[in-house]
Design a protein that fits this description.
The chain has about 425 residues and is an alpha+beta fold. It has 15 helices and 16 strands. Bound molecules: adenosine-5'-triphosphate and magnesium ion (MG).
Length: about 425
């Protein structure tokens, strides 16, 4: 029978990769705690309508990337393509948002039917953070300062660049859209197909086009900054002040608009050149209108999402994965001879009883000492424990250092267990 394979663009994370995933997740989690951010977990599936209403009908995601299906009741459901919509939905549903301030984070898989390539998958993972109830640029700054600290912890600071823009109030966006449409209409025939269509439906997204000819035409397009309203200008200046004070470098990119409809005022991306085309590792911005758009009471909001796979690719490409992540064991117990395996289990459990969370791998499945030692070496353990007939009879253990030239030595079991905390 033909073997069934994974779905294209949906990856298994194999045992040799999980340590770096956990390293990234644990680092982010510890950092969120340092900033008073609480974790929220949402379902992976939501009503299709939620994403249509929040992300916008005329976006890449809703037009062509969603995994949408009918469930057995005939309801239209969608595998979440991003986390913000579900986070707002959950926050509203449980009364977490109105008249309060909240800092929430989440992580998990997202689904988009895109063309799979390096850094772009159909199931991918995001770590996201959303803040509700804060109006000022202080919280925008805090989010950016937090991400900068994460890059620092991961050793990525020199490899990412912060791009910032303000896309203003709804009125400013409308005025700019009109100017942009006027300008681009002159070149309509030369725009790529998607952009031609977007001229009527979602002209801002044309700024995002990767088509070279469209890009060329855009060079002389009107700039957003000329249409920015005073309040947004002030907000942006405020944000820049915080960043300057924190010593965080940024590039103002007037073309930065973000792919989703719900953004306004601040938008930002952290971009790297070390991944080729898929260079954005973290993206976010302010979305003050979304909660109301989804039926809640008006609540200012700002957030971002990081692409976990892209960050891991960066860590690997730049050789920034700490080697110690791959250490999985402290002791590997080799046992040979009548009853030695029962003794091995006893020793292993005594080790695991210690308060230090000692990591012990017991050799299972028999075999000679030589074969067992090979496994011990592969296990990444610091020490092998050799248990043969002498050891069983005298209730001793022979400790053999695997990562140094020190000689092996034999100790009474009790003495050995007592000495373990000093050994590790
Ligand atoms: P892109 O322009 O690369 O398609 P996007 O604007 O669609 O990105 P967002 O919706 O802002 O991306 O998602 C936030 C982050 O999630 C991105 O910056 C990226 O790191 C990651 N991401 C988005 N789509 C994918 C994907 N298909 N595979 C892997 N990571 C992704
Ligand atoms: Mg995309």
């Amino acid at each position: 029978m033909a073997r069934i394979q994974a779905i294209r663009g949906m990856n298994d994370v194999l045992p040799e990769q999980t340590p770096v995933w956990r390293y990234l997740e644990d680092t982010a989690r510890a950092l969120f705690e340092q900033y008073g951010v609480e974790e929220i977990r949402m379902p992976i599936v939501e009503q299709t309508e939620l994403f249509k209403r929040s992300i916008g009908e005329v976006t890449d995601i809703v037009e062509k990337e969603m995994y949408t299906f009918e469930d057995r009741n005939g309801d239209s459901l969608t595998l979440r393509p991003e986390g913000t919509a579900g986070c707002v939905r959950a926050g509203e549903e449980h009364g977490l948002l109105f008249n309060q301030v909240r800092r929430l984070w989440y992580t998990g898989p997202m689904f988009r039917h895109e063309r799979p390539q390096k850094g772009r998958y159909r199931q991918f993972h995001q770590i996201g953070l959303e803040c509700f109830g804060f109006n000022g640029p202080d919280i925008d700054a805090e989010l950016i300062i937090l991400t900068a600290r994460l890059w620092q912890k991961l050793g990525l600071s020199e490899h990412v660049e912060l791009q910032l823009n303000s896309i203003g109030s709804a009125a400013a966006r409308q005025a700019y859209k009109n100017a942009l449409v006027d300008y681009l209409s002159q070149y309509k025939d030369q725009l790529d197909e998607d952009s031609q269509r977007r001229l009527d439906t979602n002209p801002l997204r044309i700024l995002d086009s990767k088509d070279p000819k469209t890009q060329e035409i855009l060079v002389k397009a009107p700039e957003f900054s000329d249409y920015l309203d005073d309040e947004s200008k002030e907000h942006f200046a405020g944000l820049c002040q915080y960043l300057d004070r924190a010593g965080i470098a940024y590039v103002v990119n007037p073309r930065l608009v973000r792919g989703l409809d719900y953004y306004g005022k601040t938008v930002f991306e952290w971009v790297t050149t070390s991944l080729g085309a898929q260079g954005t590792v973290c993206a976010g911005g302010r979305y003050d209108g979304l909660v109301e758009q989804l039926g809640g009471r008006s609540t200012p909001a700002v957030g971002f999402a990081m692409g976990v796979e892209r960050l891991i690719l960066m860590l690997e490409t730049l050789d920034l994965v700490p080697a110690s992540l791959h250490d999985r064991a402290d002791f590997y117990i080799c046992a040979l001879g009548e009853g030695s395996s029962l003794y091995a289990f006893e020793v292993a459990e005594l080790l695991r009883d210690l308060p230090q969370d000692v990591r012990v791998v017991t050799h299972c499945g028999g075999g000679g000492f030589k074969a067992q030692m090979k496994k011990a070496d592969k296990s990444t353990a610091t020490f092998a424990l050799l248990l043969g007939e002498d050891e069983i009879q005298q209730r001793t253990v022979t400790v053999k250092p695997l990562r140094s030239d020190q000689a092996q030595k034999t100790l009474p079991l009790d003495d050995f267990i007592k000495s373990v905390p000093q050994m590790l």
